[in-house]
Design goal:
Layout: H1 2-17, E1 19-24, E2 27-32, E3 41-46, E4 52-55, H2 58-61, H3 64-73, H4 77-92
Antiparallel strand pairs: 1-2, 2-3, 3-4
């Protein structure tokens, strides 16, 4: 029953927020439903003070402008992920 509820929660998060979240120890791997490649994942690490930091990987290196604007300057992971979601969505759909 507990595993079923966890799976339901994970699926709800994916549908509602657009990211599949896998927990690996104290790290969280996020993959957008709009990701262009399977390797386009973000890895966040939970620190002792309950803060989260983005760990560098090939995909995060490609987002340096967004990281600077949303994480470094504004200190907002939700704004960063929202911007990324809209950007990936716009790349896959043509609304203009």
């Amino acid at each position: 029953m507990f595993k079923q509820k966890i799976q339901e929660f994970r699926e709800a998060c994916y549908v509602l927020f657009g990211f599949r979240i896998d927990m690996i120890g104290q790290q969280f791997k996020l993959k957008s439903m709009f990701a262009e490649k399977p390797s386009d994942t973000l890895l966040f690490s939970k620190q002792d003070d309950d803060e989260f930091i983005l760990l560098e990987n090939e995909y995060s290196k490609s987002l340096s402008k967004e990281i600077h604007a949303f994480l470094t300057t504004c200190h907002s992971i939700p704004a960063f992920l929202s911007h990324l979601t809209l950007d990936l969505f716009n790349n896959q759909t043509y609304l203009n």
